[in-house]
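Justification of computing resources. Each target in the renewal requires a structure prediction run like the one illustrated here; the chain below, 178 residues long, is used simply to show the kind of job we budget for.
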Amino acid sequence: NSDRNLRIMKKVLRDSAQGDDYLMLWHIAKEHSNLSNRRQALYFYEKAIESFDGGDRLITSRLYIGLAKQYRLLGDYRGALSNAGKAAVAYGAWREPYSEMAEDYFFLGDAEAGEACLKIARDIPLHDRQVERAELYDSASFEKFCLNVRASTPQAEIAKHASGISVRLLAGGDVCLA
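Resulting C-alpha cells:
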C-alpha cells in the first residue's frame, strides 16, 4: 500500500537525525511514482540525488534513471534524455541509461539515434553489478524495450557464463516472477 508506505517513510525521514537520507528519499520517490504522482516523484528523486554522496556510481546512475523515467512519463523527453545521459556518465557499464535514451529518442522521432542507443545497450556485457529491473519501466515500454541478452550474444559466450551458475531465489511480500 503506497499511501501507507509514504506515511511511514515520511515520518521516519522527519524523525531521523540526518533528515536527508538519500535511501529513504529514493524510496519515497518510487512510492510517488507508483501512485503516478510524477511531480512529487521528481522532487524526491532530486532530493535523493542532492543527498547522495556519490560514492557508488551505479547508485548515482540508478537515481538519475528514476528521475529520467518521471520526465518521460510527463512527456518531457528532452528532460528524460538529459537525466539518462547523466546516468550513463555516472556508470556507463549499465544498459539501462542507453535503453532509456533509446526510448526517449524514439518518442522524439529520432529512430536512428534510438537504434544506436539500443546497440550500445546490447553490447554492454553482463557483469556482477548488472541490474535490469522491471520497476524502471512502465508496462508498455517494458515489453518493447527490455533487452534480450541471448539475441545479441553468441551461444558460446552464453554457455561460458551460464556453466556452473546456481541460482537461489529468496522472496518476501508480493512477488511476481514474470
